[in-house]
Amino acid sequence: MSTTRRVSKLVDGSAGSEGFGKKIKEVGFGLLSPEEMSRVAEVECCNRELYQMPSRNPARYGCLDMRLGAANKATTCETCRKRMDQCAGHFGVVQLVLPVFHAGYLKHVLTLLQCLCKTCSRALVKPTERESLLRRMRSPAADALRKASLFKRVVERCKVVSTCPYCGSANGPVKKISNQGVVKLAHDKFKAWKGGLDDDGECPHHEKLRAMQYLNPLDVRRLFERASDDDCELLWSSPAQSRPEHLVVSSLLVPPTSIRPSVAVDTPGGGGSNEDDLTVKLQEIIDVNAALRQAVTKGGSTKMVLDTWAFLQMQVGQFINGEGKKPIRGLCQRLKGKTGRFRGNLSGKRVDFSGRTVISPDPNLSIDEVGTPRHVASTMTFPERVNALNIDKVRQLVLNGPKIYPGANYVETASMKRSLQYGDRRKVAKELKIGDIVERHLLNGDLVLFNRQPSLHKLSIMAHRVRVKEARTFSFNECVCAPYNADFDGDEMNMHVPQTHEARAEADELMRVAANVCTPRNGEPLVAATQDFITASFLMTTKDTFYHREQYCALATYFDSRDSIKVPKPAILKPRRLWTGKQLFSLLVSTETLSFELKERNYSSGLDACPNDGYVVFRRSMLLAGNIAKKTIGDGSKRGLIYSLFRDHGPAAAARCMNRLARMAARYLGYHYGFSIGISDVAPTRAVQTLKEGLLKSGSEEAEALIATFRDDRLPLKPGCDALQSLESELAGLLGSVREKAGKNLMSHLRANAASVMATCGSKGSAINISQMIACLGQQAVDGKRIANGFVKRTLPHFPVDALGPQARGFVGNSFYSGLTATEFFFHTMGGREGLVDTAVKTAQTGYMARRLMKALEDLSLHYDGTVRNSESAIVQLVYGDDGLDPSCMEANDRPVDMDRLLYRVQAGDYPNQRTATATATAPEEIRDYLKKKEEERRKAPLEHLDNIPSVAEHASTFARIATDKVSRSRVQPGEAVGAIGAQCISEPGTQMTLKTFHFAGVASMNVTLGVPRLTEIINAAKSISTPIITATLDNPKSEVSARLVKARIERTTLGEIATLHQVYAPDSVYILAQIDARLVAELHLVQITSRSVRAAILRSKLKLRAEHVLLNPDHAHALRIVPPDPSFFGMQTLKAALPDVVVDGVPSVNRAVLNKNDDNNNVVYNLLVEGYGLEDVMAADGINGRETTTNHVAEVESTLGIEAARSTISNEISYIMSAYGIGIDQRHLSLLSDVMTFKGMVLGITRFGISKMRESVLMLASFERTTDHLFDAAVHSRTDSIVGVSECIIMGIPIPLGSGAFKLLNDDDGKRGDDDKKHPHQKRNNGHPTIPTTRRRLIMNHDAAADAAKAAAAASSSS
Amino acid sequence: MSNNIIFHDEFMVEKVNPDGKKFEKVSRLICKGILYEVELLVDINSEIFEIKVEEKLGVAIARNLSLDGSETYEQVVGKPSLLDQYDYAMHGVAYKYKHVEGSTVEVHVSHGGLLARLKGDERHLAGIKVDDEVYTLIRRIEAAPGSSSA
Question: Membrane-spanning residues where (chain B) (predicted)?
């Protein structure tokens, strides 16, 4: 059987020429037999010398033999006669005298030994079970996951067998005994032997200890050789690919020299060389092997043979896995880890045509340009093919050569590639032919990829157009800082030049800045005006900005409008003609019509008439009211100007607007206004000073008063808090408000102050920052609390013992302007350090989380049938996000159309009003309902001249048409890598989450873990979480009394809490008397506790008392006697120590419950927040509305309510975390993640365990974690990897079947069918299914035909 | 009075900058119409036209500036026009017409960001249509009692 496989030489000399056009279908893993190794090898290595001494040439038959590959640049390979750069190297082999265990397979060998009879080599499965197990193992439907569980079962079955059902001999467990690096396997043959006496009439039991039988590699190999092919299959290994005897190595393959290069060392007294760890180890193996051969053939002592053998075993083990006392870089170490082969070289590759330098801002560049230094532009090139149209231009580039800027570096003709650095460029230029390829310098307008690390989301790499500049840095428009998270304090960025037109086209369509203005996280614009652009716009549009005609015209020219500017009529005609800043700003969008209204950051009240001028009205491209600030032109706002332009007029219009804005802002602030900040901006005025002092004084007085009440024990307790906690919570609120109040009042005092302008318009800084500079720094916190004691009973020795006052606990009353005192400074550094540590820790944690999420979700994509599937074609979602809409296109709150905004625009007349009869009728119901509602609202006004109020009905069909169009445009495109995008959208905000805990639902005493730790918990599907909280709704939520009763019932009550225990040593008996405190029980509303219930609880407990041990006293209703089963003194003491902890009432797994009062609009509703586990018990408790009760613990929801409930809990919990930090994530991303975690029918964490259950691909799993384990496992079970996922394709260098790689050409020119079905097995399976017509899957490259096909597909899909 | 004036009344200035002086060069006036009881809120450039509380103003909203209502803005420059009859004139656009309650409506006019809001019975304000270009003309009729400069 085993000879059916033909192993050819892995690196075969002919591969270069004949291998052209070969395609890797799959990668198989298996074990090589010694014969196969010999066949593969070019040379048997048996010479321990590395070099022949006088000549220093590699020794023949040594492990650096020249036949293993070219050793240096000077020599050629003796096998293939190629030079070093051509020859990949060849294998050698070492024939071991005696077999040894393989370090990677040892564990599996152990398992197999437990499954096979150590006498007859048959699997120890009972004959009755054997058939069915074997059938199931052979079933073609069994995938790796199922086989793994089946194998596990077989192993379990075999382990319990002590007598071989076939030969009847004894079998026991096999153990690994390792002693100082020497590994031995021992078979405890008679451990469970239940048979009779053996042949000699002795009972083997007596010999138990000595009956341990060592199994040396030779034994094991023989044992495995005798195993039948059927048994091999039963034990999940293939007789053809991975016979178990090959797990024990008797020949060792020597890797080519090219992977273990020697480094020549020049030492004065004669040369030497530095050898790779592998070479050294191989040399040792050859040496030891020779010694062993000597000992065996020349008759060495047994001890000597055994010792040498053990030493050989150790050396081979180290060769494979270099861990140990003296670690070396063995084979495993080369594969493992971040810089190992898998992650360092196969999944991530070094690239050419890339550059990196410092970045600088340039508002004069368009948002999709990148200023490129000439040096970069003439080093990085694009291979341009010469054609009839460009030949003259290209010829000139060739003439210019590499040194003169628009030039070229290389010319590639059909025969050769030559550098233009040397030689006659004129000759080359003259001979230039159509079809040659010229590697020309980058020119203005070339598309390049621009990137800043860390690349947390897809917007970290975008395509820009090159603009060559005389500078040494990359530069770009500041509007693009946000997606890259870049600033200019020394940041560096990378540039990559796509080398084909195909790559360019894709980059242009998918990656260009204009196409990525909005983040896929929730559709908010990320590329938008920042900092100075906002400040300038704000200053320009304040109400009291007036310009003369000259000023107006001068500023108007800054907008970069190519059309002639029409100067509008002045806003003020008399007494003087004046134009306003708003009229100037309106020119920004003069080429597009748009209308919207929004409340800016400084909006206070009164809509349009807001006294701060904070209500922005844009109508028909005119700014009519309101000052422009961050919400209008900044990022993260879906109601603003940039977003309106982007959605309604296209990315180009938004880009144009930002370009104009940037140019205008830079010039306005630079030449006209002047904007600077200095010490005078943060110097408090007398008024501010008095205000601050007043606030501080009242604050500290209040605090002292609170502390006094606390010391007198008069402080009212907060729910679930002790006195100190209540005090801290009160003080936190009080002291926190001091700084806040100072900030708020300050802002109204500051006028024409640079800092306050920036804070008001949102360009930089906040009221808190200003108040810290001018007024006071406020309370410093560590771990969310005031500064804790770091000295004896106080924070610092400067304060009195047990000081609780504001100053003593880290309240800083000074400002940065006034300067901090020594203690204040110290407290401030404490808070600052926590922040720094937190950031450092968080980056590492979120990085790992991002990696795991990406590995779990990377291969999910939207298929043509609308389902989301992984690369194995398993369906994860039937419809993406339940509606198939793209999160990056959502205008309003996860919905595709912001109907209020659209109606406003339609009514303002932004669109030509076209009435179509069918538009309204065919529109989705949501749209129709909205229109109906709005028209009804309008009709309510009892006016004669109703026509003055804009009509809804009149515009209904236009509205419906546009809205319907928007919905259909926001469908996700087939092929979209929804998984990868989702993973990025969830992990990218991780770095923004700073604080760790929050108060839960406003209950001061209840903290919930949030932030990265909580996110990790959910994603890991952790079994125990740090703050499990069950939120329980009450049957009677209005009554506090009944709520308290329910609470008392749920909370755990122990015997020690309600009863006093007395030891009674009477003459006739000893017992413990438990006296239940009836008054206390009544006070606690524990009406259900009686001596009977307590007795039952004690009997139920782990104390193992029987009914006769717990006695009720008929005379005393509240007394119990507990008689110790062991009446000794110690028995009494143990009992007395254990009794107080007996849970007599409530849910044992609950720590405590807090009654939560929700008071909205005098409608008081109570609910219970229960800390701890036990959802099932709480739901079932009396007075609890089980239908409305849930927990934040995913695993518990799964076990109690099922997988669907767990799924929604996952997305709800993540959503809750994100909302606590003000991070909006589209529901679709969360539901995809929760579907991935649940689609296998159980909650799988995004961890190494979970992911290995989600996917089968060996390469993908190996590139994730536990690289070598997965590889050894794959070899043992002779698994194959079909290279369908993202990781595998990257590793093998194959285009990824996602996005633009999702489809294939089915019809080529001569009508031959491509082999698409292999890649999409599900489509094959679905062939003939009406919903996937074949026409829809057939892409034809001809444009007209493509249009026809699209029509046909539309017709087909609508008819089905 | 020519037919291009679509609203006209005399107003009493009740408040100047009711929320405090928020802008250096702009004041907000709250006025009450004497004849039609229309409430007027209007922003004016206080640097070039200062108004005090309890002054009496004549306010007109006009479609254009020529005396006979036929000419456009460009054509009246340098000729006798409505401008001659008023002390302060702004040009703007009516952008919002809102129902408040009963028969009361609100009309919003923006003069390049200087807002005017007329609130009153729809009969008096119906002439102003949304998206109309309008001129807001103000003249001093009577100085505030007690102020020395008339």
Answer: none
